[in-house]
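User: I'm designing a mutation panel for DUF4083 domain-containing protein and want to avoid disrupting the core. Could you give me a predicted structure to guide residue selection? Please restate the sequence first so the numbering is unambiguous.

Assistant: Good idea. Sequence first, for numbering, then the predicted structure tokens:
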Amino acid sequence: MEIILMFLVGIIVLIIAVMAILKGITHRVKTPTDNLKEEISNLEKRVDDLENKKNT
């Protein structure tokens, strides 16, 4: 009985570990993309500001 219980606990721990690894990988891939989008947005705003200053 204890062997079956330990096997089930091991499976649960394995599932939690796999989920944590996948979440970590997703976060590492997504963060640079979000930073890049934010930087592009900032650059577009700066270009618009410079064009407005040039036109006035």
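For picking mutation sites, this is relevant: Helices lie at 2-55. DSSP finds one helix and no strands in the chain.
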